[in-house]
Amino acid sequence: MQPCKRGLLLALWLMMAVLKASAQLITGTVTDTEFGDPLPGVHIFFADDKNTLVTSDINGNYRIAARKGDLVFSMVGFDTKIVPVLGRAQKVDIRMVETASALNEVEVVKKKQKYSRKNNPAVEMMRKVIAAKKSSDLYQRDYFTYNKYEKMTMAFNEVTPKVFEDDHFKRFPFLKEHVEVCPETGKLILPLTVEEKVSRQIYRRDPKSEKTIVVGQRSEGVTEIINTGDIVNNLLTDCFTDVDIYKDEVRLLQFPFISPISTSSAIRFYRYFIADTLVVDHQKCFKLDFTPNNQQDFGFSGSLYVLADSTWRLKRVNLNIPPRSDINFVEHMDIIQDFEPLQSGEQVVRNNKMIIQLQLYSFIQQKLQVERTVQYTSYDFTEIPERAFKIRGDVKVESSAKMRDVGFWEEYRPEPLTTGESQMDLFMKRLQNIRGMKYFVWIGKAFIENFVETSINPEHPSKVDFGPVNTFVGTNSVEGFRLRVSAQTTANLNKHWFAKGTVKYGFGDQRWKGAAELTYSFNEKSYMPREYPVRSITVAYQNDVTAPSDKFLSTDRDNVFMALKWSPVKHMNYYERFNVLYDWEWENGMRLNLQARREWDEATGSLIYRPLNETMPTAGYDASSNVRRIGFAEATVSLKYQPGATYINTKQRRLTTNFDSPIMFVSHTVGMGGLSDIEAGGYLGSRRFTDDSRFLYNFTEMSIYKRFWMKTWGKIDCTMKGGVQWNRVPYPYLCMPPTNLSYIMRLDDKTFSLIRNMEFLNDRYAALMLAWDMNGKLLNRIPLIKRLKWREFIGCNMLWGMLTDKNNPFLERNMGDGRLFYFPGQFNKSGQYEYISRVMDRKKPYVELIVGLHNIFKILHIEYVHRMNYIYPGTQRWGIRGTFKASF
User: If you average pLDDT over each of 87-96, 331-340, 443-452, 718-727, which comes out highest?
Assistant: First the structure.
């Protein structure tokens, strides 16, 4: 989970943290009399009002809003129990007696027996259920379509009326009007957001194609406060997605869960128990309970209701997460799916309800609830016209989707909105009118979004934002302490034109620097030009200082936290750059970049540009013969293909939320021969070109990324990349390994951790990076340690490189060639020039090994990195790196 997501969720929790008083609830545990086992799925309600119905969870626990009356406990297979209760908070534990009945069809296996798959009737029944799912596989059809209605609500959970008696909240009486009882849990909630969507799904088997056509979409709630509010909706949609148990793996909470009816893994991964025979919607069913072999593995627990008619098809599914699961932030999850037969014979899901109760940390008592309701209707298997599949990408949003009237939504909703959901617009108006709320939101957004808006009035949203905030101050070896101010326009000023500017000053070099950028987006944007899909042209100018290795960082190199470096960076260069970028992205995941760049670089700090036709630098050498500036002009074309990727947009960058999709990248850069120059002179001085200083260059680079899920053994991320510099060039144009010199790391940067700035210079290179997140598979099996819920991580980074003879400055034949430079170095105490850059052995790869722990306090990731070879005097052989990484 990226920092923006973490900050957003934290803010939502803190916004109403005061609503933490204990609720007026009746709570308790329901167990069976004979064995004392918890009873999930018990119906609990007041005798005079069945609308108060709640059900016990997988541990037999329940909660119901307190009131005076007779509380009924009912479950098929057990005697009904009625308990009178008072209208106040109390604890009522119930032991239910099993009804005497003969189960002729199956043998009930009690959980207290030692579990074995051999001769286990539950396992035999599951084999039949798994075999029968093929008969309900819609993807065997040539065509199918259906309508899909989705509603997702996020709310504060366990809100109580007592909180409104507090002096701080007496002036906000309207909050009490929006609190309501969740019928599924019996808890008091305060709805914060509601999102609805109606879509039409279409499928064709040959050639295979599946599309989603969104015909209606609406969203209301606190996401309106945050200008990049799609973060919340997209994050919720990506984490709490469809659960199709007919598939072998179900993606939920950004992890693959093994389906309880998986063809390949279910029998090995789960334990099954025949619990009862009962009637569901007038049909006799076998109830099978299941749980993972190791409850800390990522899997479901719950119950399957199998039709007792020899078809072995599912009638109902109840999925939970085991109490001892290693999943973060999820206190409880309940997924209920009801299946019905089509006239064609397939057993398909009709209704899907998911309720997730979230808690950030135990000391933050305020909780969140996410509820997702899905209904599937109008199944059809007739042939679909060819033109329906010609839409670009997998999803098409109709132009009128966000303009649907009340009648449209009333037609598609399976049930009316609750009072809190229907009054969301009124709730937001009241919330925004609270005295001081605008300033609270303005400060909170600056913290979350890393940008300061120039407006606090929601009716007049910000047209210019200042930031990133974490770049306002910083330091490096050349600038010393420096100040920076940056600003960017938003779509509130113009939905097509966007401007950005930066001014900075270094107190060490006493230089002003800056940048200016103008972007035209061919498609309208909601807030920033980088929103998916990107279709823009950008003209930019920059005048700044940088270290050569900084170009590999995806974060802003002026980020104050990136100044914490494990290796001092004294070799830097000033640059002045003009850049034109054409960026076009298609819905199928293809992205094209066309870029033209003109740049002048000036060495600074300990970096020098000294051609080989001059003497080797020594103490007191004549530096006037150094090349002060090198200039070049180049054109780059690159293609990136990332099918199925999903994104969230922040004010600083666009972040990928789904790393399951592969990434293929290829680029080629050509240096414009007649426009390149190497000459002596002052910074930004004369720009004359001399024939003997001109050179041509061509650089090609490719990379492939793929994530491999290892079922219960976590995931392996594999990145392979390589590049070739085809021509004779000075060392600034050679291939430098991507390296991060900071103690703070970004897990998606794909950089080396113990290679110094410009340590290896090659004109051919290949790199392999492997990262295996075992997701606690080993640590979860160690007594005591497993209680920490830490997750292990191992990795290996390898680099193969070579420098061909034509670019090797150490060869005698190249001495005197003014187009090549002495490699970067520094003077030792004896006044000798020592190279910091080296030539790699083409037969010996550089290797660094990584061992790490993450999920420390649910948010901290720490790695130990060890360098295996290429050890020289002063080489750092190991290091500790860290970052903040929150995930479920």
Answer: 718-727
3-state secondary structure string, 621-689? CCHHHCECEEEEEEEEEEEEECCCCCEEECCCCEEECCCCCCEEEEEEEEECHHHCEEECCCCCCCCCC
Q: Is 565 helix (H, G, I), strand (E, B) or coil?
A: strand
Pairwise CA distance, residues 834 & 837, whole Å: 9
**Can you read off the two tokens belonging to residue 304?**
């399957």
Contacts of 807 (CB under 8 A, 6+ apart): 725, 728, 729, 731, 734, 763, 820
- Three-class DSSP labels, 382-402: CCCCHHHHCCCCCEEECCCHH
> Two tokens at 219?
């969203």
| DSSP structural state of residue 737 | P
First CA to last CA distance, the chain? 8
Query: Using N-to-C axis directions, what is the helix angle for 437-449 and 3-15, rounded to 10°?
Result: 160
**Range with the lowest mean pLDDT among 68-72, 519-523, 669-673?**
669-673
The pLDDT tens digits of the residues spanning 10-63 come to 444 444 443 343 347 889 999 887 667 788 778 888 888 767 778 787 678 888
**All residues at 6 or more sequence positions from 758 whose CB lies less than 8 Å from its CB, including other chains:** 548, 549, 571, 736, 824, 836, 837
Q: How far apart are CA 330 and CA 659, in angstroms?
A: 22
The pLDDT confidence band at residue 108, using thresholds 50, 70 and 90, is very low
Query: Across the strands, what pairs with 258?
Result: 249, 299
Q: How confident is the model at residue 587 (pLDDT cuts 50, 70, 90)?
A: confident
Q: Is 134 exposed, middle or buried (0-12, 13-18, 19+ CB in 10 A)?
A: exposed
363-385: average pLDDT: 88
Average pLDDT, the chain: 84
Task: Copy the structure tokens of residue 263.
Answer: 């063809």
Phi and psi dihedrals of 801, rounded to 5?
-145, 155
DSSP result, 119-145 = T-HHHHHHHHHHHHGGGG-GGGSSEEE
Contacts of residue 395, defined as CB under 8 A and 6 or more positions apart, other chains included, come to 211, 212, 213, 214, 587
Structure tokens at 72: 């009924």
Identify whether the C-beta of residue 720 lies closer than 8 Å to the C-beta of residue 742: no
Whole-number pLDDT of residue 101? 39
State pTM to two decimals.
0.78
Q: Which amino acid is at 770?
A: L
Q: Token match 């239910």: residue?
A: 96
Higher pLDDT, residue 338 or 859? 338
- As a whole number of angstroms, the distance between CA 482 and CA 473 comes to 6
DSSP secondary structure letters along 466-483? E--GGGSEEEETTTEEEE
Encoding tokens for residue 632? Answer: 């070049």
From CA 218, how far away is CA 215, in angstroms rounded? 11
- Angstrom distance (rounded) from CA 441 to CA 239: 26
Q: What six digits make up the tokens of 801?
A: 């490189």
Residue type, 843: K
Q: What is the pLDDT of residue 129?
A: 93
Q: Quote the CA–CA distance of 190 and 180 in Å, as a whole number.
A: 7
Which two three-digit tokens encode residue 307?
A: 């039709």
CB atoms under 10 Å from CB of 26, counted, come to 24
Total number of residues shown for the chain: 888
Token pair for 301: 């627990």
- Report the C-alpha gap between 307 and 619 in whole angstroms: 89
Q: Which tokens sit at 4? A: 């923006």
As to burial, measured by CB atoms within 10 angstroms (0-12 exposed, 13-18 middle, 19+ buried), residue 263 is middle
Which phi and psi (to 5°) does residue 699 adopt?
-130, 125
The phi, psi pair for 97, rounded to 5°, reads -100, 130
